[in-house]
Amino acid sequence: MDTTGSLNSKVISIDGNFDDAQSAVKKIFNDEKIKEELKEENIYLSSANSINIGRLLPQIIYYFYSYADLVKNKKISGGEKISYCVPTGNFGDILAGYYAKEMGLPIDNLVIASNDNNVLTDFFTSGRYDANRDLVKTISPSMDILVSSNLERLIFHKSSDEVVKEKMADLKDKGLFEFKSDFHEFLCGFAKEDETRETIKKVFEEENYLMDPHTGVAKNIVDKLGLHKTVILSTASPYKFSSTVLGALGKSFR
């Protein structure tokens, strides 16, 4: 990221993980002194990740687009319910699917696919969100997250702003909270690294389709749950993770 050559961008590294970075960004956004100082310079802060609802809005579109494409190609009939499986860490992309469903798109299940950092799978299974665990560095790094920022948005839709405030305070102070609701829209599961590698290899050998590790997690969950007529959101390129993908195929990386 530090080799783009852009004159109007700067890459800053931190000693920490995604959760540390996202927490720091939120603190900056909520710092009134910083905001006032920047305002004097006519500078306003924003975020390119799903802290910003603007990230989710275009993501809603490809749920509708993919559905329309399936109807156009006569893979499904108009109005027929299908499911979507999303490799999930920060809960943004799948929340966009929830919004699409709320807008009327005939979605049956929204499937949360987690890696070894399966805090979301645990939450939707038990109603207890517990971030008091070690972060596992996996081959699907975009999902290596313990504090899923967009979950608070879903909790808001399922309760109220006061409940969200209470639960987020518990998460900050104790590292956990409990919240039970009707999450009938969601299914969930998690895949370990060996399972992900096996899925990447199997799909390539049987379908001649090369998938990245995040997509491999999602495909593994779809197979485990025995789902049919399910769109898997392939959220990254396999060429970005060439060493991992080649290793899964039994090839060496040179």
UniProtKB/TrEMBL annotation:
Belongs to the threonine synthase family. The gene is thrC_1. It is an enzyme of class 4 (lyase). This is Threonine synthase. One of its GO terms (biological process) is threonine biosynthetic process. GO terms for molecular function: threonine synthase activity. GO terms for cellular component: cytoplasm. PANTHER family: THREONINE SYNTHASE-LIKE 1. Its EC number is 4.2.3.1. InterPro entries: Thr_synthase-like (IPR004450), TrpB-like_PALP_sf (IPR036052). It comes from Peptoniphilus harei. Transmembrane segments: none annotated. Its cofactor is pyridoxal 5'-phosphate. The keyword Lyase applies. Keywords: Lyase, Pyridoxal phosphate.
